[in-house]
Write a structure and sequence with these properties.
Length: about 190
């Protein structure tokens, strides 16, 4: 994100601190903050939760196998992407390198963010979140799409100097080696 973005889209009135003070909805919806505006996304459905749960389990096991006690996989935690640009998000899964006894995490503590897109996620929401993770310098990003009636799509990205570069893509139930802080194999057929 740059200063030009804020001039094209004036920042909304809500700060990261305001967002963190808000109660998360009791129905499982997620309240996120994008450029100073609160966005409520519906509660994730069964397929979304299943895919996120599988990825959490794969990551947790890979971290244990690599004996990386300095890293932890966490489902659905708040990440304070940018105070200046008033942005905070809740990835479906995050790998953090900080003490886990927090309700939110600074972007420099997030090593990997995992987003599971459902058919209801808009293109704008997707692009904005990817740009937010890149601007926060989150090293690895996994995106899973769950198109209706089709196999899950998996994209694994690593952060380069100018943004994310795609390291792996799978759309037909393949097993792939995903980019991350430890070796991780993802069987995309098991995400459905």
């Amino acid at each position: 994100m740059s200063a030009e973005v804020s001039m094209i889209h004036p920042l909304g009135p809500t700060t990261v601190e305001d967002w963190l003070a808000e109660e998360q909805p009791s129905d499982g919806s997620r309240l996120e903050l994008i450029l100073g505006y609160l966005y409520m996304t519906p509660a994730p459905g069964g397929p979304h939760q299943f895919a996120a749960g599988e990825l959490f389990a794969v990551l947790r096991e890979a971290l244990r196998e690599a004996v990386r006690t300095d890293l932890r996989a966490l489902p659905g935690v708040a990440v304070r992407i940018s105070t200046a640009f008033r942005t905070g998000v809740i990835p479906d899964v995050a790998v953090v390198s900080a003490d886990i006894n927090h309700t939110s995490f600074a972007p420099e503590d997030v090593v990997l963010a995992v987003e599971v897109w459902s058919p209801g996620n808009t293109r704008e929401e997707r692009d904005t979140k990817i740009a937010a993770y890149a601007s926060a310098r989150v090293q690895y990003l996994w995106i899973v799409e769950l198109p209706l009636g089709k196999p899950a799509k998996f994209c694994g990205y690593s952060l380069g100097e100018t943004g994310y570069r795609q390291d792996v893509y799978a759309a037909n139930g393949e097993t792939v080696k995903a980019p991350g802080p430890v070796p991780v194999t993802v069987n995309t057929a098991e995400l459905r």
